Amino acid sequence: FVPPGVLPLCRQPLAWSRARRQPPGPPLAPCRAFSNNKILVELDESSGVATMKFKSPPVNSLNLDFLTEFCISLEKLENDRACRGVILTSAIPKIFSSGLDITEMCGKSTEHYAEFWRAVQEMWLRMYSSNMVTVAAVNGSSPAGGCLIALTCDYRIMVDNPKFSIGLNEAQLGIVAPFWFKDTFVNTVGHRVAERSLQLGFLYPAPEAHRFGLIDELVPEEKLQEKAAAVMAQWLALPDHARQLTKSMMRKTVLDRLVAHREEDIQNFISFISKESIQKSLRMYMEMLKKKS
Amino acid sequence: FVPPGVLPLCRQPLAWSRARRQPPGPPLAPCRAFSNNKILVELDESSGVATMKFKSPPVNSLNLDFLTEFCISLEKLENDRACRGVILTSAIPKIFSSGLDITEMCGKSTEHYAEFWRAVQEMWLRMYSSNMVTVAAVNGSSPAGGCLIALTCDYRIMVDNPKFSIGLNEAQLGIVAPFWFKDTFVNTVGHRVAERSLQLGFLYPAPEAHRFGLIDELVPEEKLQEKAAAVMAQWLALPDHARQLTKSMMRKTVLDRLVAHREEDIQNFISFISKESIQKSLRMYMEMLKKKS
Amino acid sequence: FVPPGVLPLCRQPLAWSRARRQPPGPPLAPCRAFSNNKILVELDESSGVATMKFKSPPVNSLNLDFLTEFCISLEKLENDRACRGVILTSAIPKIFSSGLDITEMCGKSTEHYAEFWRAVQEMWLRMYSSNMVTVAAVNGSSPAGGCLIALTCDYRIMVDNPKFSIGLNEAQLGIVAPFWFKDTFVNTVGHRVAERSLQLGFLYPAPEAHRFGLIDELVPEEKLQEKAAAVMAQWLALPDHARQLTKSMMRKTVLDRLVAHREEDIQNFISFISKESIQKSLRMYMEMLKKKS
């Protein structure tokens, strides 16, 4: 019963079988692990599950290099018939990702801002529309863009530690989350929670994030990877084709909105970030961060 | 304060009185009970409440005959000025309705698929836009299309038995719930619960369905009809005209979407269901069901 | 990251500082308190917080005079650079506001209905789009239009007393909440709760309103103003510019809908309210109220 306008997403043959996928077609090129500067990728071919571990010290901030590597890794997995799901987690203690790298938005050229923003959009578009099952195993704090990565996943598990917090806290920095951050947030926690949280730039400690539905499940730190694997197995038990079409149906409106306004959104970002008042604020914020550390 | 674009739905005169409706106009034709092959209908003229009992063994599956009789019965009640509300329930133990009849989607002609799908649409359109108060008294399991019927009602009461489950589990069968199933579901449980439930094809045991808001109220089996009557009385205490306009205002966007894309939706269904891979899956599923029983 | 289409709302310079705002520009005209016939307004210049106290006995009903004074007071504050937030509360015991004044809708001329309805729209448009932080300190019952005022605020605190109730109970009066009341309600409590509550014209006792998210927080009566001030301080800790842009982004769709259909909505109101059946109902309702008191 394919709804009108749903794009064909089918990479997988329809199968009743819940058994491990037996990929059809020619034998696959071996693909077990690859890594680049900022992300470690491991693929377990027997389960079809990859893990992407963010390893960009000190805080996995999303700079242009990270975003580029992220999208390349994701595309590799997306096109790899041995891969059906991906778990996102951090290789750095206490932090999942600190979000967009402010140095990319400060004192750079218009061209740089455009390139950076396009990379942020690209990351969001690929994750939110991924054919793979995507699970965030949030093992540390995850503000702003870090929270966004988690929001794009199909399921979010977080370490049950009130010292780890998560949220779209852009307003606290004097900036505004773009409309597609907001749309993803509203789709997850509903309009009222989103309205209040975004205006106050709330960072929720893990237990509170769970109460509001921003996080689906809390687990002790030592159980995180095990739980992520179990959740993944549950999602992979479904026939890929039907699951993918359903996911696309749920997310299409919000995805289409950015696709339709992508260039406009880049121009908006550039003109906002280029304001002297904003530049000054970001510089002050960076000073504050330096003093802190 | 009628919002723009709301259709005139008024069959009832506006009345402050909470007392039993005194129908204006000429005396009514007697209408106490009628039944057809698959549905028993009883109308209590003193309360204005009809009960439609599904009686299509073994599992009240929604085949073309059932859907046709359902729509005819519903239309009769809708046009009967003595009837203001209808309670839907099952005459078969342990099952409310098993949903769309798979035999209608397997090995049939294109014309048959079109006729069947139009009947499913018709059932949904009539129920979701009904001028009557509609209460689902869910006294058994209610997967897929069975769940949809419950979702179209104004209120859902379910027997408090974890052995009875309910949900839109299409993805488990390798098929995709159409967009209007999804819209109805989102309107009831919100975007996030719908996204997760539809992708996983979840069937919720009654208590869990209640926790997520898919079911409004749980009662012991022996209290079900009594509770349904009490709920109905509460809804009928409101002036029909205002209640109907309000209901229409809440559901119009979603109703209009199917009306605008009805033929397209039929064509989509036909081309999806006619695929050899889907036919094969449905055959395998029916085999499995046969072995089970 | 300004989303496309967001209007520039900026009255405040961007500031990292959480400290008390130091208003730039020429010295301010003194503005401490002003009042008119129906509303007491006090502005604490040191905190930037104004309080608007409704004082229109017996029940703060929203007649044309009240609405006019409300909008004038609000505009004054909105344009006053010393004012960043406003707390709405009642100076009359046990009632916040009884909602739209029925006498304005009964036995009046078409011109009067149009003027009245435009004033109701104006109040909603100004409140829902206010640049200021708006907190409702609900210290009494608040049906219909009274509930609407609370819904337009950024945050709702209510006295924890089950004798005080709140809700959009229009259906109980045989009338229909306009689409923009409905949109505001859906944005606050979600589609399902709104659908059920509006059809049944529910008035929720404060504790239940809190459970459904219609009210954000309950406090003992003697703590209400203190809590409102504390909440206000929390919201004012954010940079105004980012908070305002975020608020606008969240509410724009719903605001634009009324702006686009404003005249149509007035005509709809006039033709609905002018019906003899509606006039009769409203007269009966007023009789009932008179007998009660």
From TrEMBL, chains A, B, C:
<comment type="function">
    <text>Key enzyme of fatty acid beta-oxidation. Able to isomerize both 3-cis (3Z) and 3-trans (3E) double bonds into the 2-trans (2E) form in a range of enoyl-CoA species, with a preference for (3Z)-enoyl-CoAs over (3E)-enoyl-CoAs. The catalytic efficiency of this enzyme is not affected by the fatty acyl chain length.</text>
</comment>
<keyword id="KW-0276">Fatty acid metabolism</keyword>
<keyword id="KW-0007">Acetylation</keyword>
<keyword id="KW-0496">Mitochondrion</keyword>
<comment type="similarity">
    <text>Belongs to the enoyl-CoA hydratase/isomerase family.</text>
</comment>
<protein>
    <recommendedName>
        <fullName>Enoyl-CoA delta isomerase 1, mitochondrial</fullName>
        <ecNumber>5.3.3.8</ecNumber>
    </recommendedName>
</protein>
<dbReference type="GO" id="GO:0005759">
    <property type="term" value="C:mitochondrial matrix"/>
</dbReference>
<dbReference type="Pfam" id="PF00378">
    <property type="entry name" value="ECH_1"/>
</dbReference>
<dbReference type="GO" id="GO:0004165">
    <property type="term" value="F:delta(3)-delta(2)-enoyl-CoA isomerase activity"/>
</dbReference>
<dbReference type="InterPro" id="IPR001753">
    <property type="entry name" value="Enoyl-CoA_hydra/iso"/>
</dbReference>
<dbReference type="InterPro" id="IPR018376">
    <property type="entry name" value="Enoyl-CoA_hyd/isom_CS"/>
</dbReference>
<keyword id="KW-0443">Lipid metabolism</keyword>
<keyword id="KW-0809">Transit peptide</keyword>
<dbReference type="GO" id="GO:0006635">
    <property type="term" value="P:fatty acid beta-oxidation"/>
</dbReference>
<comment type="subunit">
    <text>Homotrimer.</text>
</comment>
<comment type="pathway">
    <text>Lipid metabolism; fatty acid beta-oxidation.</text>
</comment>
<keyword id="KW-0413">Isomerase</keyword>
<dbReference type="InterPro" id="IPR029045">
    <property type="entry name" value="ClpP/crotonase-like_dom_sf"/>
</dbReference>
